[in-house]
Amino acid sequence: PLFSPGHLRKLGLTRKTRKRRDFKEDENPEEKAQRHKEQELKPLYKELLYTIAHKMGKPSSTEVFTDSQLHQYIQESFTMTESEHSSLTERVQSTEPPVYCLMATVKEAKEILGKDISGFSDPYCMLTIMEDEKESRTRRSRAKPSKSIVKEAVSNDKIYQSDIKKQTLNPIWNQTFIIEFEDIAGASFHLEMWDKDEEVSLTQKLEEITSNFSSLKRMIKEAKKEKGTDDFLGKVVIKLQDLHCTEDNWYNLEPRTETYPDRGQCHLNLKFIHKARDGTLSAGRSAYINYCGILQQFVQAYISKQQSSAAWKGALCGEAQTLLEFYATQNDLSPFLQDLAKWVAYSKLYQSLEVDSSVLFQQLTSVEYHWHQQELPYQQKQELGDSLHGFLQYGLCLVAKYRDIFPPTPSATPKLHTLLRILVQICKTQAFQKLNPAQFELHDEVSDAIQTGTQEWFTIKKGLHQPMTKDLSEIVSALSRLIGEVQEDIKHNKVAWNRVFVSAVQVDVFTVVYERLDSLIAKEVRETLSRIEGQMEQALANSLFPVYLSLQAIQKDKAFLQKRLALLLLTNFQEGFREALPYWLNQAFSTTQDRVERAVQVDQLQPLQSGAVPIKHSSSAVDLVACIQPVCQLWEQLSWPDPEEAFMLMVKLTEDVCKIVVNYCHTLKERVRVLSENSDHGRAINMLCVVVNDLEHLRLVLTRLPTQLNWAGLRDRTRTVIGESQFQNTLPSQLQQAQGVLGREIRSALDTLGKKLNTDIETHVRNMSTRRRIPSKSTEDAADPLMRYLERELHYMNENLVQENFNSLLTPLWNNSVKILYQVASQHPQQGGLMVFCQRLLYTLQCLEQCFLAEGNGLPSNTLHSDEYKALKAHLTHNSLTSWQLVEKFLERKIWEQNVNSSEKYGAVTLLASYSRSDQRLRVEVLNAVNLLPMDSNGLSDPFVQLCLEPNHTFPVVEPRCTRIKSCDLNPLFEEAFEFLVSLSQCQAPGACLVVTVLDHDTLMTDDFEGEAFLALKAIPGVAGERKGDGLSSQPDAVAAQIRLPLMHPKPNEDTILTLLESRRGERDAQAYVKKRRQREKQSQEGIQP
Predict the structure, then answer these.
(1) Where is the composition biased (Basic residues) (predicted)?
(2) pTM for this one?
(3) Is the pLDDT assigned to residue 205 strictly greater than 70?
């Protein structure tokens, strides 16, 4: 049973229930309905017909209904046929009419006239109803205005007089008079207010005069008046047809003449009632009982007529409100009884129809308000008590079944909240406390109902989830389903129902339910685990895992318990699943490994997404991360409580993840090999890029693994049982080994990728020298295939390799490209086309440098400009120059050697040189030579100086000049001047210099070589500086400078430029220049050992 006898005693329900005239339970429904209609509905119907036939006054609503409309409404509401309606109407018409009455309550008045000497009055009221004949007769017989209309027009037994209120201008009466009348048509209600005038002694009058001289005028007027005549204060006249069936208003007191028009106001309550109402309509029933029945029928009719499924919120149609108002007024039902009737009717309907709880709450509030205002009759008190008790019991029944009746939805939980508030309000009402003397704690009763309901709910759910067979897996599955239901119920209690119960009745339903279900579930889990002990296998362990997860989730919810009375039975439930733990780990590893292998098998090794936000790795890398995630989640799901066992569990999980990653590397390499067999060279390179990205992505995943698995939290938990060294030597070392494997695989893939690219680069470079003569293609066209290839490949790799690996690939690729260029340049066999080929290679090198530099986004300059690069660039630069450019380079180098040489072991020559821009003349004066080598057998020489402007292609028409020969002199003095007619632009041309050669004159043999010096023309005064206009300057000529030049001897066969010029057999000028320089080398003493 839902409630024990003790509970019933608390509710006051042990009183004997009144005998009810119920009929047999097995009665035919149609007969029962017909009997209900005859005994219950028809008497009420006749009451309503009688009410319509004898209605008085206007209803309070603005909508007015005719009698036929009201008849039609009640006929539909009471489901009466036309014949039944006609028959009942005839019976009502044959009944005795009631006595029509106006119940007039004179409440108070304010600001009336003061008629006495004291300035106050002694007011009283006279009330009556005057009908048409009396009023017209009085009006005709009255020749002049009379003071008392009421007294003269109506007999004394029809006049009602109130009490006299002494000396006041704001009298309060609160007296009720019932005035009968015959017909409302033409009748009017009259109220006259008078000041009572009583005879007083002369002494008292004199005392009043002496105390208040201001009232002297009033005294004189009083003296003229007849003794004992009352003074008129005002009147209120209202036609009965203008009244509503109930009125409660302030009315102005009107004068008989225009004298004193402002006479104050009177507060009246007027209500039309019946007396001697026919008792045969509903024999033996009080008006209150009839009102309850009529109200209930109207509500049922209204709800059944509504198309909406929403709960009824207290609304009724206009006809129903009008009829209820007429019936309550005619039978003089107080507002208290009306609200009581509504409470009784609505609380009964709530148990059978969809009635909104707020309607009950509103009526309960009204009943409580009236309880403090007036007393109820004994019978209604008993009915109210029974109703409150019955609804409280019914409400607790609903609370026990709150899961089914008020599901956790936004529409249902507010209904539960309102119901609980109603129960609270019932217990708070004075009516309940007076009518139920027994101690009653709603908080405890609600808690008991919740516990009882939870036990019943669990029993039902357990029966629904009974295993179909005795198979252990089926038993575990049944337990899993049951715990799933419990988990969901706890969640709803926490999220939805708890705030409802706490806010309404201060009951923490979550705690009550959690503690009850904890003990029930713990018992089921213990019994099931004991049955499977020692029989564990993989399939059974798999079916146990959902049970474990549900219990884990339930245990986490204990943090929300407000108070814990005892130790929860599910605490440390994990120990019962220790036998299944290895099976769970094995299942997670094998499942993940299989998924990874399948992911690789379908991977086409293409980037997942390109565009603004590229994804550079392939599908299998994403799948692998998704596959590893459940292994990491397993750690959180298990939340193993024992620290030492938790550490071993973490070691096993980390080992499994690393093993899966390493296996993925091997599987991916095999996948590349398979796909590369039928792919072209470019496709193979692209796949290698994707593989590198996949491995790099995995390396990042492994880097985040300690955070994902919360190693820091585990370290804090295990600090007391696991040493720091043991912790560091176990988990991080596992991770480092796996990352090491990934790093090696990445480097290996990058090496393979670099080799494939280097092969293509070498092929493109060698294709530049396919012709024996100068190819028809320009340098740019010849290098274009290589550059387009590199641009395409590097652009692809930049987009499809992560930045770190792209940079790792660029450095060896650059070094290998430089090496290939050097090898090809060095191995070129076609001497004739070497210059053009080197020009191409130099252009290619420059393009490669810009490509790898990538506007600062590629390799840094210090990485690009290696020693190999510098050597290659110098080699290509020289080999790319024309013969004239090589001669210029040769002379520039000689000028540099001259400038850095300070030794005069071969002697020196002194010049005086200047350039005149005005007449474009170069003037050179050879002053002397010193410390010349003795070239003749006599230990002396016959020196002379030769002056030559070089290079020859710059000064093609300038002839060499020579000084006179100085015989037998090692320090000759020449002092000879020479002028050369040359332009400034010639003097400033690359390599332009004055070659000073000192020779020893021999008559019979070739002149001996004493030494040579190279003077840059730019160093001569007048040459340096900017040219203006046509080169002529208005500036004064520069002052000649004296220049001392040490003589030099060339080193034989050391100059690479000459060697390069020498290889160009087909160029006569170049060969002639080389021949002249080789002759000087033969004459040189630089290579002779002393």
Answers:
(1) 7-21
(2) 0.55
(3) no
